[in-house]
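Figure S7 source data.
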Amino acid sequence: HMKIAVLTSGGDSAGMNAVVRAIVKTAISKGCEAWIVREGYEGLVRGNTEGHRHTQSVEKGTATPRPKHVENPDDFVHNLRFGDGELLKDGTGDHLGGKTLRGRYIVRVGWDDVRGWFAEGGTLIGTARSTTFRTWEGRLTAAHNLIKEGIDALAVCGGDGSLTGADVFRSEWPKLIAELHTQGKITEEQVKKHAHLKIVGLVGSIDNDMSMTDLTIGAPTALHRICESIDNINSTAFSHSRAFVLEVMGRHCGWLALMAGVACGADFIFIPESPPDADSWEDEMCQKIQGHRDAGKRKTIVIVAEGALDSKLQPIRADFVKDVLSQRLGLDTRVTTLGHTQRGGRPCAMDRILPTLQGVEAVEALLEATPETPSYMIGVRENKITRVPLMDAVKMTQEVAQAISEKNFQKAMSLRDPEFCE
Ligand code: F6P
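Tokens for the predicted 6-O-phosphono-beta-D-fructofuranose complex:
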């Protein structure tokens, strides 16, 4: 009778709600208790203030019954709906079936609470980039809060930073437990019961920047958003015979820019993994674009990944690219920064399918976990859902970032995806 909690952490991405839905429903179907942690690791640290601790204080809901095969008489929390309150500021407005969630960050949920969540954008349970969880004290409090609720398994959906946090948490777990016991905060029995924390990671990130997996949850939707925006821009660019420089997200990864370039027929793209020669890229770009214009093209689209660099590791800025196009080619040029429109909104089909399949796998990985097995990251490789050791994936992702910062782009690309590189 495992108690499985799920949290979303770091930048939100489309499909995170589908992850929560899949984990909650799979956990309940397999006879486990399902819990959510609000506001990412921050919620773990805040926990449930005394007096609000027990979910029994939430009345039995009256929502539509669950399917017959799901036996869980204790599945009492229904109609989970978060309001618009400032959740991190202990404000009002956050509700659970009409009951306030104030002071409660670790909440047991039922089958109906996540109904329809696969179609919702962002993350309904909240996310944060927690600074307190980065400290030992923060993680100690987080461990205590989990033990107080009797939770023994945690599914974390986030990017590489969030999964690194998960990895640190698990590897420190024995020390955290020992410290809590020394401080008299947990009993001998709790030490035994919670000797191991089971952790699984799912990659939610629009950047598609994680090693050892082909696709991260949210990346396909963000790519769709970019394509829609470029389609919109195309028509106005065509009308005026203009050039547009589009800045797209992706932090240190050029996947969104590269794929959008292919999907929308961009004239030129800049990505961090392939920095152009600092002394000649302006000539090269102008030559290419002039060539396209000479061939009769009425519009020009240049995509700049937000982390794009030149060979001297100087950032390539959309405004600067615009100036080059205007001044050297005389093109009427505008800059559009797509910003967070790329991150929000309804998930596309792929960002419902992937988290659903991965959510099921994540619960299975938790159920099969032993003290000897590593914590897994659930990935996808050649269309198959995979489990890879979380530590390896995180380490390799960090090595990619390191290689990029050392200008070793070949190494970066081969670490990220050896086969693609070939
Ligand atoms: O990692 C996701 C991401 O959207 C990046 O593409 C971007 O650099 C960053 O998050 C933006 O972060 P914030 O939402 O905190 O501005």
